[in-house]
Amino acid sequence: MAQPEIPDKLYFRIGEVSQLVGVEAYVLRYWESEFPGLSPRKSSSGQRMFRRKDVELLLRIKHLLYGQKFTIEGARKALADKNKALDVRKSTPVRQARQTDLFGSNPLPEIRKQLSEILALLS
Questions:
Q1: Domain contains 104
Q2: Residue 26's domain spans which residues?
């Protein structure tokens, strides 16, 4: 399924999201109760205001439910597993390369040699 282009806005009303995702508003409200990661804010008048990340999550949910034929529980688990995988990747420390790993114990002689060669080429 081709993903629709999401306009560059801060907030979307439920009618706009309904058109973008391609499902009725009552389906969005139901998904809101079933998927804990989906939590649109409400305006002072009580209208749901979805952020871009909410719309992207809704598109993922629709793909899982309609495209891959997951059940609600299966889609919830798939999203949770994906979030866990992202958390593990984020928490895995990245090893910093040390200067000695890159250049040996004393890089200055090599740097001087290379600079001399460059100077000779330019002269």
A1: no
A2: 12-91
